[in-house]
Amino acid sequence: MSIRLEKPWLPLTAEAVAALPGQLGVYEIADASAATLFIGYAGGRSPFGLRGELASERERRRGPGFLFRVEVNMQYLSRHQELLMIHCADHGELPPENETPRRLGRIHPHPS
After folding, report:
1. Cα separations in angstroms, 61 against 18, 90, 109
2. Assigned domain for 47 exists
3. Partner of 71 at 20 to 30 A CA spacing, among 9, 28, 46, 91?
C-alpha cells in the first residue's frame, strides 16, 4: 500500500464537487498537467466537509483546467502533514500554494 495519494484526478467542476461527501479528509488541487498546486484538508470546522472546501476552491480558481482528488480520512491533520512531507521528499519543496507550516518533519518514502 502506497502512502501517496494515488486516486485518479477529477476535473474541478460544479457537478464533481456536488457529488462529494460532507466528510472530513484531505485533498489535492492540480493544474491541467496534474502538477500539484495545493494540498489541503477539510477539518472539524469545515462546513460541509470536503464538499464545502472544494466548492470554495472552485470559486477561487475560476476557469477550466483545474483538477482535484480527495481522500476521506478521520485523521486529516496527520494525513495532511504526511502528504506535505511526501511532496517535499518527491519534489524538494512544498506545493506552490501551500504556506510553510510551523513544523514539518521529514519522510523518506520508497519510490513510487
Report:
1. 16, 25, 31
2. yes
3. 91
Residue 50 maps to a domain: yes
C-alpha Rg value of the chain to the nearest Å: 13
Cβ–Cβ < 8 Å for 76, 25? yes
Domain count, the chain: 1
Flag whether pLDDT at 100 surpasses 70: yes
Give the range of the structural domain holding residue 78, as residue numbers without chain letter: 10-91
pLDDT of residue 40: 97
The answer to whether residue 2 sits within a structural domain is no
The neighbouring-strand residues paired with 40 are: 27
Whether 51 and 10 have beta carbons less than 8 Å apart is answered as no
